[in-house]
Specification:
It is built from 14 helices and 21 strands. A six-stranded mixed sheet has the order 1-5-4-2-3-6, with helices on both faces. Strands 16, 17, 18, 19, 20 and 21 form a six-stranded antiparallel sheet that branches. The protein is α/β, with parallel strands linked by helices.
Length: about 450
C-alpha cells in the first residue's frame, strides 16, 4: 500500500500521529528522499524529548546514509540548536519534533545548508512525492558506498554562539523563572545561561515528551498560569516560557503579566538596529502591532510587512538582507543566526535590556506596547471563502477604510485595524484586531466576529 501523506506533509514540515499516520519505516524513506531532493552528501539530524523521536531520527539517518550521505547526529536538541548546526557546519538538517503538539504527535522540520527552509515550494512537495512512490513498491536504489552515521555534541558551541551575539557582561543581577514545559528548554537553558549574573528558578526542566504538567504551548494562556504564579511568588524580575522544541519564547513581566510578542519584537528590533549603527531592514508580519513599524522607523530602520509564516519571513529576510524579523506568535528571526528563528536569542536580548537599566520589565516594555490588541481569536466556519466575502462586502466602500489581501483580509481605519486569515489545515478563520484604545478595539473585534460567525 502506498502511504497517503496528504494529512502528514504540511506547508512547512511533516507532522502527524505516530504510529497511526507515520512511523520509522516512513521516516527512513523521508531520509532517503531528503538526500535525493537536496543532493546532499552530508546532513545533520537532531531530535526532541518525545518517546518516538530517537527511533524516528535514527531511521531517517539510515535512509539518508543508504543513499550515500554522511549523517552527523547531534542528538537531543532544540530546533534552533539544529539550525545552529546547519549554519555552523554548513549542512542540510532535519529536526524531529512536533513542537507544541500533544505527545502522540511527531514531525520533521527540514532545512537546506545554512538553515534555509524546506517548505512546499522549496522541496517538501518533491520529498512527499518520492516517499509516497517508494512506499508503494519502487524502493530507492542504495548508493554503491553508503554514508556514515556519527554523533557530535553541539550544545556548548550553540550556547557560546548565542552569548557572542548579545553583550550580557555588565547587566545587573536578575532573578528569572523559566518554564520549560518538560520540553527542550530544560536541556538548553542551563547551558546558555552559564556564567551569566542570573538566579535561575527552573520549572518543569525534566525532559518528558508526555508533558505531565501542561502542554508545551505558551501561546495558550492556560499554559502560562503556573509561570505567572511562580514569578509573583518568587518576586522574580521576569519569567520565560518555551514551547516543546524551545524555538519560541514567551515573556512574563515582574507582575506575572504576559508581555505581547509584538512588544518583544519592537524591543529587540530597537536593539538590533542600535547594534547595526541605526540602519537596517526589520521584517514584521501583518498581525504584529502598529507599535513595531513605528519603533523601527523611530530607530532609523526600515519596516517591511509580510504574510504570516516562517517561510515568508525567511524568504523576505534573505531577499532584503534584513537584520531581524518578528512574528506575533513569538517567533524571532536573526540575520546573525542564518535568518533562522531562535526564541533563546530573543530572551537574551530581553535580559540584556532589562539588566542594563534599573527599572522593571513592565516599565521598560510600556514604550513598545502602545495599543490595545485582541490576541488571536479562532472561529470554526463551514465556508471560509463565504465568510471572508461577507466581511469584504460589509466594509468595502466605507469612507476612511482600506482593504488589502496580502494574507487573508486586512481592514484598516485611522484608529483601528483587523485581519482575518483562513487556517490552511482546519476549518477556522483567525481574527486579530487592534485599536488606539480598549473600547474601540472591543467594538471592532465584536463587529468582525458577528460577521465571521454569521
Amino acid at each position: 500500500m502506498a502511504a497517503d501523506l496528504s494529512q502528514v506533509v504540511k506547508a512547512y514540515d511533516v507532522r502527524g500521529v505516530v504510529p497511526d499516520q507515520w512511523d520509522e519505516s516512513l521516516a527512513e524513506l523521508f531520509g532517503a528522499a531528503f538526500v535525493r531532493v537536496t543532493g546532499a552528501s552530508a546532513i545533520a539530524t537532531g531530535h526532541d524529548m518525545r518517546p518516538s523521536s530517537p527511533g524516528l531520527s535514527r531511521a531517517f539517518a539510515r535512509g539518508a546514509a543508504a543513499l550515500g550521505a554522511d549523517v552527523t547526529e547531534i542528538g537531543l536538541c532544540s530546533t534552533d540548536q539544529l539550525y545552529y548546526a546547519s549554519g555552523a557546519l554548513n549542512l542540510p538538517g532535519a529536526m524531529f519534533t512536533a513542537s507544541h503538539n500533544p505527545a502522540q504527535y511527531n514531525g520533521i522540520k527540514m532545512c537546506r545548508m545554512g538553515a534555509a527552509p524546506v517548505g512546499q515550494d522549496t522541496g517538501l512537495a518533491e520529498i512527499r512525492e518520492l516517499v509516497e512512490r517508494w512506499s508503494e513498491s519502487d524502493a530507492p536504489e542504495p548508493a554503491a558506498t553508503p554514508g556514515t552515521i556519527t554523533g557530535r555534541d553541539t550544545l556548548s558551541d550553540y550556547a557560546a554562539h548565542l552569548r557572542s551575539l548579545v553583550d550580557l557582561t555588565s547587566i545587573r543581577p536578575l532573578k528569572v523563572v523559566v518554564d520549560a514545559g518538560n520540553g527542550m528548554g530544560g536541556h538548553t537553558v542551563p547551558e546558555v545561561f552559564t556564567g551569566l549574573p542570573l538566579t535561575l528558578v527552573p520549572m518543569y526542566f525534566e525532559l518528558d515528551g508526555t508533558f505531565p504538567n501542561h502542554e508545551a504551548n505558551p501561546l495558550d494562556p492556560a499554559n502560562l498560569v503556573d509561570l505567572q504564579k511562580r514569578v509573583r511568588e518568587e518576586g522574580a524580575d521576569l519569567g520565560l516560557a518555551f514551547d516543546g522544541d524551545a524555538d519560541r519564547c514567551f515573556v512574563v513581566d515582574e507582575r506575572g503579566e504576559p508581555v505581547s510578542p509584538s512588544a518583544i519584537t519592537a524591543l529587540v528590533a530597537s536593539r538590533e538596529l542600535a547594534r547595526h549603527g541605526g540602519k537596517g531592514t526589520i521584517i514584521h508580519n501583518l498581525i504584529t502591532s502598529w507599535s513595531v513599524p513605528e519603533v523601527v522607523t523611530e530607530n532609523g530602520g526600515t519596516p517591511v510587512r509580510t504574510r504570516v509564516g516562517h517561510s515568508f519571513i525567511k524568504a523576505e529576510m534573505a531577499r532584503s538582507g534584513a537584520i531581524f524579523g518578528g512574528e506575533h506568535s513569538a517567533h524571532y528571526y536573526f540575520r546573525d543566526f542564518w535568518n533562522a528563528d531562535t526564541g533563546m536569542l530573543a530572551a537574551l536580548h530581553v535580559l540584556a535590556a532589562l539588566g542594563g537599566q534599573p527599572g522593571t520589565l513592565s516599565a521598560l516594555v510600556a514604550q513598545y506596547d502602545r495599543y490595545a490588541g485582541s490576541g488571536e481569536i479562532n472561529s470554526t466556519v463551514t465556508d471560509q471563502a463565504a465568510r471572508l466575502a461577507a466581511i469584504r462586502s460589509a466594509y468595502e466602500g466605507r469612507e476612511g477604510i482600506t482593504l488589502d489581501e496580502l494574507d487573508g483580509l486586512t481592514v484598516s481605519a485611522t484608529d483601528w485595524w483587523f485581519n482575518v486569515r483562513p487556517s490552511n489545515t482546519e476549518p477556522l478563520l483567525r481574527l486579530n484586531a487592534e485599536a488606539r484604545d480598549p473600547e474601540t478595539m472591543a467594538r471592532v473585534r465584536d463587529e468582525a466576529l458577528a460577521i465571521i460567525r454569521g
